[in-house]
Amino acid sequence: MGPGPLSPAEVVAVARGEAPVELTAEAWARIARGRAVVEDLAGRPEPHYGVSTGFGALATTPVPAHDRARLQRSVLRSHAAGAGPGIEREVVRAMMVLRLSTMATGHTGVRPQTARAVAALLDAGITPHVPEFGSLGCSGDLAPLAHCALALLGEGTVRDRDGVARPAAEALRAAGLEAITPAEKEGLALVNGTEGMLAMLVLATEDLDLLLAAADVVAAMSVEALLGTDAAFADDLQALRPHPGARVTARTLCRVLAGSGIMASHRDASCTRVQDAYSLRCVPAVHGAARDSLTHARLVARRELAAAIDNPVVTGDGRLCSTGTFHGAPLAHVLDLLAIVVADVAGMSERRTDRHLDPARNQGMPAFLADRPGVDSGLMIAHYTQAALVTELRRLAVPASVDTIPVSAMQEDHVSLGWSSGRKLRRALDELATVLGVELLVAARSLDLRAPLRPAPATAAVRAALRAEVAGPGPDRVVAPEIEAAARFVRDGRPATVAEA
């Protein structure tokens, strides 16, 4: 780690793949220089926030030298005030490696042994229990990061590499690690960052990229099975409105639909349809806008990965300065934006699904794609489930960042609520995978029912890969396991990888 910022791929590798963590010699030197500044200031008579004063609204309260070690322990214990179920292991690990990356800049003033302790915790696979509720996304993700930091003290609950919940002190002993005693400034340095929001943003951009690629392929299957046309996806038409994401989506749709016997069957004068419904014809506009929003989110994430978030910060010229750079607004806004994007992509998917199932609009297929309509209900209720998820996604799209609530005796009188934005985005992404999974089930069955007409090689390959896990048309059977299998197929990114192959 160092000298430059972590990349999103490196964060994901540690969070999900348990890649080892190592700091460079330059990073260790920066940490040592930053610590020397803090130790020099700690010996001076004038007050310095976080070193010789209380925190937040207690910033004007001086703390004598003999109480400063207690001060640092106290801030971690008092701030570990979260509630609710524990958050996901990958988010906690991402938070920890991101906080370590900030320490490696030298701007937080921690001791080398404290940074080393965070790295050792990650490498040992020890994950602190972090409750879901507690962060307002301002002054950093205080409560979640405090719960992470408790483990360094040998306090709180953790899970070991096998996922077993254990007292932190016991897990440290089993891993051959020693608890630390935080010194001046280190309490704040461990908690005063936006790493919780950033962790969820980095992981979300990776997940949404896979889901948008899947959405393009699944939409192409629907266009094909519903006897739509790819004429509107032509590159010269997309160039008339030069949004880069739309052109990427349109080109993908054309590649996936190339060589379709189904589409060739109605490319003549017998086809009386002048243009397709919006949910087919406007896929590049909606999926493309989603892609462009994702591009912006990645830009914000890269800027945050290059940042040093703390308060106060140690400057390069040896000062300790209070800042407002810990405010989560840049992250909160973009996390909310992605939740809106997810809801819109899901809503268009649901409209295509409904079109497949309606005999008045599905171009000659049975009602609800049932084996014997009336005796069988086909995929009618799968659509209900999808519709329920879409309504939930619309609720999750309501921005958290437009709200605020003052705390800390009005010292912290405007907060971002970006942690809440991140939490609901994670739920939204999981639900989008299921929405797309239902459309995939329906589109694959529609392609089956178009036989003997043959689909495009790419869509046929996706259908065949799905059929290895989910049977084709037939009498009614339990649908829930098939929805879960299709959602997993989408979540793993297989529609795009199979189609591209």
Cross-sheet strand order for the largest sheet: 2-4-5
Per the principal axes of the C-alpha atoms, what is the gross shape? Answer: elongated
Radius of gyration: 27 Å
| Uncertain ranges | none
**How far do the termini sit from each other?**
35 Å
CATH topology heading of the largest domain: Fumarase C, Chain A, domain 2
Order of helices and strands: HHHEHHEEHEEHHHHHHHHEEHHHHHH
Pathway: Amino-acid degradation; L-histidine degradation into L-glutamate; N-formimidoyl-L-glutamate from L-histidine: step 1/3
Pfam family, one: Lyase_aromatic
Family: Belongs to the PAL/histidase family.
Catalytic activity: L-histidine = trans-urocanate + NH4(+)
How is this structure best summarized?
InterPro entries: Aromatic_Lyase (IPR001106), Fumarase/histidase_N (IPR024083), HutH (IPR005921), L-Aspartase-like (IPR008948), Phe/His_NH3-lyase_AS (IPR022313). Its EC number is 4.3.1.3. 56% of the residues lie in helices and 4% in strands.
Can you tell me about this structure?
The protein has about 500 residues and is mostly helical. The chain has 2 domains: about 190 residues, Fumarase/aspartase (N-terminal domain) (Fumarase C, Chain B, domain 1), CATH 1.10.275.10; about 270 residues, Fumarase C, Chain A, domain 2 (Up-down Bundle). About 55% of the residues lie in helices and about 5% in strands. The strands form 3 sheets. The chain has a 3-stranded antiparallel β-sheet. Strands 1-3 form a two-stranded antiparallel ribbon. Strand 4 and strand 5 form a beta hairpin. Helix 1 crosses helix 4, helix 9 crosses helix 11 and helix 9 packs parallel to helix 15. The longest helix is centred in the C-terminal third of the chain and has 32 residues. The model has no long low-confidence stretch (mean pLDDT about 95). It is an enzyme of class 4 (lyase). GO terms for molecular function: histidine ammonia-lyase activity. Pathway: Amino-acid degradation; L-histidine degradation into L-glutamate; N-formimidoyl-L-glutamate from L-histidine: step 1/3. This is Histidine ammonia-lyase. It is found in: Cytoplasm.
